[in-house]
Amino acid sequence: MSLGLLLVQALNGLQFGVLLFLVAAGLTLVFGVMDFINLAHGVQYMLGAYLGASLAAMTGSFWLALLLALPAALALGLLLEWLVFRHLYDRDHLSQVLATFGVILFLNQAVRAIWGSAPLQMPVPALLEGGIALMPGLQYPIYRLAILAAGLLTAALLWLLVERTRVGALVRAGASNAAMVAALGVDIRRLFMLVFGFGAMLAGFAGVMAAPVLSVDPGMGDSVLILAFVVIVIGGIGSVRGAFLAALLVGLIETLGRSLLPDLLRLVMAASPARQAGAAIGSMLVYIAMALILAVRPRGLFPVRG
């Protein structure tokens, strides 16, 4: 693989990593603060993509679709929290897993009923069309760089919100000891609702940003959900900083592993077996990395104190 292609794959890995962070940040806060396992978090990423694609088709503007999709994703997240999830906070984890898995099945079928099974396409905004020259003869799409920049900016704003505001202090305290926060007079149910709604909006934002470069179809959130759980386990449950660094790491491993391994294995075996073995091993690299990290740091890279 040439240096140019390696650079492109590295940028693709970072871009995928920031999308994973947008999904995993809300998930790690919900799990860390509320001790609530929400398997339906990936569905909120899917709903964000569908809302963005539909609103872009209706308005003819990517930016207006993005502006409208964020409050819509927030409202859908709060609606799910009010209808379903708040009744599960005091239940055991098995009940939470079963109930939220049921929500996945219901919403996937609802999406098929409303939008159909055919994939939707969302056009890249005209302002971000084209590419930028990385080196002579090699261009990289401007929109993918915009996704990377938006993810990094969101991560910085989220860090400021969590680390430098009163609400962030309550979230961090809730992640460390929710019972003590409630005993001090904080309305823990309202805190849970805010955290859940904010996480849903972040996932919806990731879905809208991913829609122009990925296929928008039912079930698109399932694979992202699995990797988001890997991210929060590696980074440390409840840690936004850990989720950010782990998401970039997972994105790079996932992208570079799948692209580089077949070429590396061709050095020691024939092309066809190398391609098959590279694809199989590449899909396992993230989980191998997770196992190795947890063997050294069982609570993740940046565990929340408590």
Automatic annotation (TrEMBL):
Belongs to the binding-protein-dependent transport system permease family. LivHM subfamily. It comes from Belnapia mucosa. The keyword tRNA-binding does not apply. The keyword Ion transport does not apply. It is a multi-pass membrane protein. This is Branched-chain amino acid ABC transporter permease. It comes from the Bacteria. It holds the Pfam family BPD_transp_2. The chain crosses the membrane at residues 6-29, 36-56, 62-85, 97-115, 142-162, 192-214, 226-253, 273-296. It is found in: Cell membrane. Keywords: Amino-acid transport, Cell membrane, Membrane, Transmembrane, Transmembrane helix, Transport. InterPro entries: ABC_transp_permease, BCAA_transport_permease. PANTHER family: ABC TRANSPORTER ATP-BINDING PROTEIN (PTHR11795:SF442), BRANCHED-CHAIN AMINO ACID TRANSPORT SYSTEM PERMEASE PROTEIN LIVH (PTHR11795).
